[in-house]
Amino acid sequence: MQKNIKKYMLVLLAVLLGALLTVCAIPVAQWLSIPENRSLVWQKIDALGPWGAVIFLVIQILQVVIAFIPGEPVELAAGLLYGTWGGLLICLTGILLGSSMIFAVVRRFGRPLVQRLVDEESIQKYAFLTDARKLDTLIFLMFLIPGTPKDTLNYLCPLTSISPVRFLVLSTFARIPSVISSTFAGANFAEGNLLASVIVLGITSAVGLLGIRYEHALTDHLNRSAARFRERMNSGKHQ
């Protein structure tokens, strides 16, 4: 009962946070809807030259490495400043670089490091990732489903047998739908298309809430399936 209450409180908090971010973004979007203001922003970005994109790229890398920093505001800002496709490119590059750094460090220092950074409940919750039969599919699925803690998963997946290249390809491509919805919303905010942005953010939030709502049931099912497989393997060895 207490777990259900906690889960619903987290969902409510996510809804309130999303609503707050939307309300806070509206004045910015209205200001940016004026062509003269957008021109001013672009002048400041151009004044930084390539360093503007580099600074934003570093921010995206930090968001991936420091797992508790939410990714959506960064992705919205990327779309706002660099457009849907430019923002997507910067975000995916930052995600790829940040994930590569985490993978290399975890592979070097192993489970003791992860246990310092990730709570034991999350480690046990995603224990099914040790199921090597469907590892590629499971990793792609976990990074595709909205609402899963993707930056936490970055620290858990290197503990599995997956190769670095396969992990980076699967996890990066699986994130594209989520990232592009945010950069699209940010780009439309900047252009003054408030309705399009609100619709996209609303759909994204709704799908994210569904992901949060059913994530626990999905992980429980996957853990039970992995446990049954291990039992069959162990019984086969003893026969």
Automatic annotation (TrEMBL):
Topological type in the membrane: Multi-pass membrane protein
Main location: membrane
Pfam family, one: VTT_dom
Domain VTT: 69-187
Keywords: Cell membrane, Membrane, Transmembrane, Transmembrane helix
Protein location: Cell membrane
Keyword Glycoprotein found: no
Record family assignment: Belongs to the TVP38/TMEM64 family.
Transmembrane spans: 49-69, 81-106, 194-214
Protein name, UniProt field: TVP38/TMEM64 family membrane protein
Source organism superkingdom: Bacteria
InterPro entries in alphabetical order: TMEM64, VTT_dom
